[in-house]
Amino acid sequence: MGFQETHRSQQQTLSRPALIAGQGLFHGIDVKVRLCPADPGTGIVFRRVDLKDRPQVAAHVDNVKSAARRTVLASRSGAIVETVEHLMAALAGLQVDNCLIEIDSIEVPAVDGSSMPFCEAILAAGLSQQLTPRMRLSVAESQGVNDRAGEQWIEVIPACHGNTTIDYRLDYGPEAVIASQSFSVELTPEAFLRDIAAARTFVLQDEISALQQMGFGRHLTGRDLVVFDADGSVVDNKLRWQDEPVRHKILDCIGDLALSGCVFVGRVVARRSGHKLNHVMAKTLSTIDVCGALLERAA
Ligand SMILES: [Zn+2]
Q: Which of 57, 76, 154, 267 is most enclosed, with most CB atoms within 10 A?
């Protein structure tokens, strides 16, 4: 892919627009997104170009709307963009700070269920450094959240070095269809592309009928995402890695934490954390003040 390791200290945007088309994961509606260059300090902003007045929806945790199994954003004016997490992960993974995403329907294309097609489109368009420095937030005190049962949690703890890592343990219990698995990654664009970006959405066969009865994903087959049968085999598809599920959970985590609006330095330790807990952590990261964390310029 010709991506070279560099140590970036400036904000980045795309060099020119990148186009991606497809169907949304949950609703199956045909949709086109155009990732456009944006000024320093813009952050990631969606624009619903199919709606009157082309309303914008900032990709920020304050705009997260509660939804099952995906990340949905809604502006105060009611403009909605659904299933943003895999595109958000691609942008965060490649360290794109500023991007205006024009979208002509309600839901981001599912592509192949991973972030890789978004990454390829972004890299084909090219990245440009901007004159404004990227600010990184070094977490100075551990911050953690968990579910009521204590089975799921996510914590961000201070990093020994100036790096950000994610350690994730996926563990649905000894009887689970998907075996427990762990993965750890240091968040650099190179590691994201190599180890995380191609990991696809997965679902259990048993869950599909319930989701389809709710009207979601009726257009999907086993070729569109990873479906685990009750015996642990994969339906009509092959895993890209044996531990593809845990890598995808990290991908979701990267996309969701990017909604904090800050580039943080710290070690993320998570167990079974899903979108809901990720959003709580993103909110926590977005509200840490300078007493709890140190604002620093990117080295
Ligand atoms: Zn996902």
A: 154
DSSP annotation of 69: T
Q: Which domains does the chain have, with CATH numbers?
A: 10-133 (3.30.230.20), 136-297 (3.30.1700.10)
- List active site positions: 275
| Residues with Cβ–ion distance below 5 A, ligand 1 | 201, 252
Give the pLDDT mean for 177-203: 96
Looking at residue 209, what is its pLDDT?
A: 81
Sign of the alpha-carbon torsion through 140, 92, 57, 168? negative
The C-alpha atoms of residue 132 and residue 201 are separated, in whole angstroms, by: 35
Q: Is residue 90 within a helix (H) or strand (E), and if so which, with residue range?
A: helix 85-93
| Sign (positive or negative) of CA dihedral 189, 42, 74, 220 | negative
SS3 content of the chain, % helix, strand, coil (to 5): 25, 30, 45
Ligand 1 centroid–CA 111 distance in Å is 12
State the distance from the centre of ligand 1 to the C-alpha of 69, rounded, in angstroms. Answer: 8
